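Troubleshooting log. The previous structure file for this entry was overwritten by mistake, so regenerating from the original sequence record. Sequence copied from the archived sheet and checked twice against the printout by T.R.
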Amino acid sequence: MAIWIMTVIIGFWATPSLAQPQTAQTPETSTAAGRVLAGSSLYTLGPEDVIAIDVARHPEFSGVYTVSLDGDIQYSFVGDINVSGLTKGQLEEKIKAAISAYLVSPEVHITIAEFKSKAFYVLGEVAGPGKYMMRSETIMVSEAVLMAGLPTAAAAMHKARIITPGVNGSTTREVDLYSLLYAGNLNEDVVLNSGDYLYVPAAVTESAEKKEEDKDNFDFSKYTLGPEDVVEISVARHPDFSGTYPVSMEGNIQYKFVGDINVTGMTKGKLEEKIKTVLSSYIASPEVNVTITGFNSKAFYVLGEVASPGKYTMRSENITVNEAVLMAGLPTDAAAMRKARVVTPGADGGAAREVDLYALLYGGALQENSLLKPGDTLYVPSAVTESAVSKKEDGGHFDPLRYTLGPEDVVEISVMSHPDFSGTCPVSMEGKIQYKFVGDINVTGMTKEELEEKIKTVLSSYIASPEVSVTVTEFNSKVFYVLGEVGQPGKYVMRSDTIPVSEAAMLAGLPTDAAAMRKAKIITPGARGSTVRKVNLFSVLYEGNTEENVFLKPGDYLYVPSTVMAKVIRVITPVSTVVGITASPPATVGNTKAGIENLK
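Regenerated output below.
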């Protein structure tokens, strides 16, 4: 077996360029499944592929052509020819037919000069993580990992995963790379399709997840139950006490012969013990098994430039950034990966922290692999959006350098080597701070840097070349409101002079399933009445529409109305309860973009 693996590796590394993402070459060969590889006549053309057309003795009909995003080439004397999905042989026949009006029995030969339309990714603990191109419709895991330079010494090879993005969320399969590469287990040599990701985790990460309860993302024994989860209770030899039970919004299950049992915060093990205790009045030594069949109470969101933005559910108390982004299909080519943000909503204004996804996914920077908790949003902005925002004077996300001070803000002034001139100063309703030994200083409209210069000037009468640092410790002067169908409607504070709609919606916990996202409104109060602008939140959050991602200013309201169906259900449900009719709950919307799109 050692000879087998060495033969594969030596043959593969004979081509020097293999370790480089996007430019790797593979020798022409075939697999046991009969799939032909590099230079294959079975490769179907797509956008961004480059082809060389050679017509014998007719250079005027020859040339190099790039396939457009629409799948066309602009061919001499003929015009647009759609080549999408054609093999080189089929395109040769198509070209012959197209130029037969000009040439008798043309001899056409086509070479695929650049393979760019079909890509896959190898990430994590490999020598050369990155994006690689296919020269066939699929590629085997063994070839993919060899192209990326084999796993590093830190790799958890037994725990590799293949992630396939899709409109209804990603699917994940485990693959044992150790068994494949070092034991010759060909059952693990499965196929990667275009767009797939092969992820090789770090052994350190895998070990940490086993040791820490809150990092074991798929350990069902540690999951705590909550509203909308579903449990299946099985009592051995007693089917009358067995069944499936949804957890109500109050955290109860309606258990046969017993009534309501509150299960909020229980693990499956604790619920099993609870059921045993309850049943002991009916059955001697009951054998109880609980299975969680629906994980719905703990949700998080991955939005922006990822393959499958949407709502996802946790199978533990939290989930790592790495796992979250893999579930959402990883960032797109348009993503500003170094500027991703984790947004935690909260009634006190929420919080946002930056995370460098590029360093995490491609550099193995485990310090970036922080935890998401239920309700958190991982937002991956567009590189175009980030560039545009950085150019706007009034833009910026949580940028204290651009923040201008106002009433009720709090600043901390630190003067190097002079604690007597240092301290915390709240800004009064008149926009002033009461500064030691100096008196009132009007700070309204100043940035922290401008206030530092002001303090330096003031102190120059007392201290030679004072070194002053100002920190804004409380942002209270600039507020906005998010109301209606969001997770946490209320009053929020800005940490810049404006905030984009996307950030505002995330701080408020994102729209609920009952939200009419396409009909959201921004209301700006004014002395002569309010102005109202419509904003399509669905387009902003789930389609990456930067044109709709407008800015809220202090005092603005973002209002997210309910759908007509949600309003009807809220009217009908109390009435049906009064007349003794049990109203059916509204259909559950899925945790994907496709499900959310049904909410008009």
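The first strand starts at residue 50 and ends at 55. Archived copy saved in two places this time.
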